Amino acid sequence: MIAKNSLNNQLPNEIKSTFKELNVLKHLRIAGITKSFGFSCAYIFQLIFCMIFENKNWFRMLESKKATDIPAKDTVYRFLNQSTFNWRRFLLSLVASVIGKVSKLTRHDRPKVLILDDSSYDRNRSKHVELLARCFDHASQKMRFYKGFRMLTLG
User: Fold this and answer.
1) Domain that holds residue 99
2) What's the total number of domains in the chain?
3) 111: which of 10, 19, 63, 81 is 20 to 30 A away, CA to CA?
4) Residues 12 and 73 in one domain
5) Do 89 and 149 lie in a common domain?
6) How far is the C-alpha of 50 from the C-alpha of 38, rounded, in Å?
7) How do strand 116-122 and strand 144-154 relate by DSSP bridges?
8) Same domain for 18 and 94?
9) Burial of 146 (0-12, 13-18, 19+ CB in 10 A)
10) Which residue has the higher pLDDT, 87 or 12?
């Protein structure tokens, strides 16, 4: 009998060590991001996270050889849009953990700064781009809606 590979072993070693060091999956549970059946939240989150570094979108992933082992498109979209998941709490607990680890690496008298930027990324000429949304630009003087994404950057 051939044992099937574990679903949690899909992360590359570089990312796996980062997930373990920062306890990302623990912060998911703290934020109440859990499921009762089907693919686990940890598996779906890791899959979406890895897609960024593989430079793939969901459509290409469903066409690949891995298509039999991954959840359907609607499962992923329901996971991302679930109203009971507290994504803000997840980000805050993860950032607090990161700040705690980074502050140990610098001197006490040195100023410590993390800069978060949620810039707008316009794609007004696009129609069929995955996860394209209608967003409101509150930062510019125009105060207008645009088609595109919100880019969250941590520096």
Assistant:
1) 7-107
2) 2
3) 19
4) yes
5) no
6) 20
7) antiparallel
8) yes
9) middle
10) 87
- pLDDT tens column, 4-47: 455 555 667 777 888 888 888 899 998 888 887 888 888 888 88
105 pLDDT above the threshold of 50: yes
Asked if residue 2 is part of any domain, the answer here is no
- Cβ atoms of residues 7 and 39 within 8 Å: yes
The 10 Å Cβ neighbour count of residue 43 is 19
- What secondary structure does DSSP assign to 46-113, as a single string? HHHHHHHHHT--HHHHHHSGGGGTS--HHHHHHHHH-TTS-HHHHHHHHHHHHHHHHHTTS-TTS---
CA distance 28 to 155: 22
Distance, in Å, from the CA atom of 93 to the CA atom of 28, rounded to the nearest integer, reads 9
**In terms of domains, do 102 and 47 share one?**
yes
